[in-house]
Known about the structure:
Blueprint: E1 6-11, H1 32-44, E2 47-59, E3 71-82, E4 93-98, H2 113-128
Antiparallel strand pairs: 1-4, 2-3
Amino acid sequence: MGGGVEILLARKPGEKGYGLIGGFVDPTDPSLEAAARREVMEEAHIEISHPVYAGSFQVDDWRYRNEVDKIVTAVFMAEYTCGAIQPDDDIEELRWFGLNHRLEIGQMADAHRPLILALIDLIRKREAQPLEERTGYELPAQNR
């Protein structure tokens, strides 16, 4: 991590694109925020703080393409607290991407591309606001 806002993305074995860290909410998780913290710890071995709900998306998850049920994912932004990233669980590689550097479309996992692009756009808009006007995060209407 260097100065500025960065986003941690993960690549799974056999995939060439990066996606967001994530997983299912466990019935023992007391909240979605706790589930987000747990998933980041399980998959990246880092601690995060202040997870803030950014919005939700229906995801084209290959495991559910032929099912009636579909996946809706809740996206959170959080602050890195401590730890050295180390891939685990179903993650092969982790990488920090600075928002000041161009993240190529081809570097993103297809199913996560709309989430990543909306999140980056949201972060950039938020960073452009004066500090006193930053109240929260809200994804575009089509993603709520």
